[in-house]
Amino acid sequence: MYIGTQVGCRHETDIKVLSQLGVYHVDQTPAEPWTEWSAETLIRMRERFDRHGINLEMIHIPLSSGSAFRNPAGAVFLAPSDERDRQIDRLCEIVRMASKAGLRGLNYNITILGHLRTESRFGRGGSRLSSFEYARLDQSLGEFEGGAADADTMWERIQYWLERIMPVAEEYRIQMACHPSDPGIGDATYRGVARVMGMVDGLKKFVELYDSPYNGLNFCLGTISESLENPGEEIYDVIRWFGRRRKIFNLHFRNIRGGFRDFVEVFPDEGDVDMLRALRTFGEVGYEYMIMPDHVPGISGEEPAQVAFAYTYGYIHALLQAVNET
What CA–CA distance (Å, rounded) separates 105 from 110? Predict the structure, then answer.
């Protein structure tokens, strides 16, 4: 296990700072529109990090709950269409590009509703905390504009995706790491859409739906904790279930306070999950890849995100030292 990051590097100074902070492994996203990526695009990006002694291991492909992509592959998990097939074909090409560029894997999301949050709450020193309260979720938006999709429909679409992408990933030995839907809301639908990838049972079904050493998870400790009634006690056995099956290809290392349908994201040292115990559990099951913070609370001052992530890198370094000494 080793520290990594997916925080975008805006310029050479950001990359240099990562090396100074001891962060030598990254997941990044090319600046160009994904429809214009080539193997050479990825090779140039990898070489840019190589110059600073940093390994570009993974990239995010444009199936994301965030806003990193212009014109993302939004048809892939919608109803059958020619555009869906064109986008999947293009993503198969990106798998081949990633192999040519020497990448280990690709991170992605299966969500058509994106990242669900409610009004922020506040933490220590007035830091702004990303928050979710199901009771406050806006129910006035109506049916999702791409059409309702119950659980069976979503699983049909996911299976179609896996049957198309995974043979290519297997051929080119690229790990496909799927992030859970953030947050899970149980069996309920929102805007007519089932969030089947939000709960642990759904994630188990996903990795068993297409049994391959290249089909696994971008295991988000924070998101999976959000789906549990008592994350401080339950999360460790969840880690063991996926870890023993070698289904964890990347780790988002984030803590929360609360649990199912009501939580805030906090700094790693102040949440309900014992992060040292969690990291020891990942070590116990033989996890061997990046440990990366994915979100941090909003703090004051100049470069607040950079400062908050630097704090979290230091915390992870210390945890790794503690784990490695035992």
Answer: 16
